[in-house]
Amino acid sequence: MIERSFVMMKPDAVSRRLMGQILSRFEDKGLKIVAMKLRQIDEDLAKEHHGEHKEKPFFGGLVEYITSSPALTMVIEGDDAISVIRKMVGATNPKEADIGTIRGDFGMDTGRNIIHASDAPESAAREIALFFDEEEICDYSMSDNAWIYE
Ligand SMILES: Nc1ncnc2c1ncn2[C@@H]1O[C@H](COP(=O)(O)OP(=O)(O)OP(=O)(O)O)[C@@H](O)[C@H]1O
Ligand SMILES: [Mg+2]
């Protein structure tokens, strides 16, 4: 089923100039970028986005990390995109993430783990609405579609 996922390259990815390499992985896979915005995330938005973790001891540090400098926010579309992208992203702790995944290849620390991706259809819908207006999400077709999907 065609799904949309909310994906964010966190401030470390932007500041370490990793955006191009990471974006290439999604393009190479055959996924479609349907929205993208480089933005400074403020404290309220970071707290809302990561609300499920508000009681955790790392919450303050997480909000500080996410708001420390600009992040690249995206909506990415494709067949089973949510689970496909989570596989590409890898485990939360980059030291444990498989080599070949984004976190496994680019990171070392859970508190600097490069990228966020939605973990389920419900969270994807919530996160997309939190970061994008519906009219900012582009509806277009890719000319190679018949070579990506049977
Ligand atoms: N023990 C920890 N120490 C520091 N930061 C943490 C820790 N656990 C989680 N985090 C931060 O909180 C984020 C959200 O944690 P979560 O458990 O939802 O992991 P995830 O779903 O793999 O990551 P994300 O939601 O960012 O895609 C992590 O990506 C990481 O940045
Ligand atoms: Mg999560």
Automatic annotation (TrEMBL):
Residues annotated to bind ATP: 10, 58, 86, 92, 103, 113
HAMAP family: NDP_kinase
InterPro entries the UniProt entry points to: NDK-like_dom (IPR034907), NDK-like_dom_sf (IPR036850), Nucleoside_diP_kinase (IPR001564), Nucleoside_diP_kinase_AS (IPR023005)
Function: Major role in the synthesis of nucleoside triphosphates other than ATP. The ATP gamma phosphate is transferred to the NDP beta phosphate via a ping-pong mechanism, using a phosphorylated active-site intermediate.
Family label: Belongs to the NDK family.
Gene Ontology terms for molecular function: ATP binding; metal ion binding; nucleoside diphosphate kinase activity
Gene name of this polypeptide: ndk
Residue positions of the active site: 116 (pros-phosphohistidine intermediate)
Enzyme class: transferase
Alphabetized SMART domains for the sequence: NDK
Nucleoside diphosphate kinase-like domain segment(s): 2-139
Transmembrane region(s): none
EC number: 2.7.4.6
One GO term of the biological process aspect: UTP biosynthetic process
Record's protein name: Nucleoside diphosphate kinase
CC annotations in GO: cytoplasm
Subcellular location: Cytoplasm
Cofactor(s) listed in the protein's UniProt record: Mg(2+)
Gene3D superfamilies, A to Z: Nucleoside diphosphate kinase-like domain
